[in-house]
Amino acid sequence: MTIKVKNDLHGTEVAVMPLETYALESDQMCAVIPFTEYERAREALCGMSDCRCGKVPDIGFDDNGTRYVLKFSDGPTVR
Fold first, then answer.
1. What is the spatial distance between Cα 65 and Cα 67, in angstroms, rounded to a whole number?
2. Is residue 79 part of a domain?
3. Does the pTM of the predicted model rise above 0.85?
4. Does 77 fall in a domain?
């Protein structure tokens, strides 16, 4: 399953692969996106380090039009 994420300011779109999906108490669907997918999406949606567009929004849609709240997993740990 993929979830499409859009950056309306730049008119860009990217598909991300969630680690897992589940329903919240509000019945809203949630998708957990790995940090590597977040980084890939951020680069594909904007790529400009000084842009204030927000890069990756916190919602996305699957192929059936179901809306997902995106939760990004923790990034790499520094040891």
1. 6
2. no
3. no
4. no
